[in-house]
Amino acid sequence: MTGADLVKVAQSKIGTVEKGGADGKSGNIVEFWDWWKAKTGQSDQGQPWCACFVSWCFGQIKASSLISATNSAGFIYCPSGVKYFKDKKQLVDPKSAQPGDIIFFDWDQKGIADHVGIVAENHASQGFLVTIEGNTSPEGAVNASQQNGGGTYQRKRYLGKTIHAIARPAWATFTESKAK
Description:
Layout: H1 3-11, H2 31-40, H3 50-60, H4 78-87, E1 91-92, E2 102-105, E3 115-123, E4 128-136, E5 151-158, E6 163-167
Helix pairs in contact: 1-3, 2-3
């Protein structure tokens, strides 16, 4: 498996919108939480799900061992993911991001990752990356949440202070026999 395989899985979920809530579509109820509960026994349905989406994508290609920050299924809390990759010395310069890398954001500029997605394309020479993110808003949405927008979308993210970290999973060391 490679980063390109991960991107294909993430792309397959573009347009997924959460269910629940008073309006029938904003209650953070998504299939990714059902997957997390089946894998871990933890029911976090209704919580923000950007990291759960990333973990789900890795799970679909049997590569969860590359992101096992919280448990064998991955992570659901962005700061845990950043710490995991920092401890493994797997953080890279955003300008060198590759498809399949994990991008962490700090929208409120407090020094703590509060959103995460998957890098799909690097256009650093033009000042941006293309990402696929769960629990965000569609590109161009006005007055919409970047970190709790309710859907899975492809986004153009500009290089700069909102990118907290880019993590590169150890694809070269991965074999499916290590997969859980």
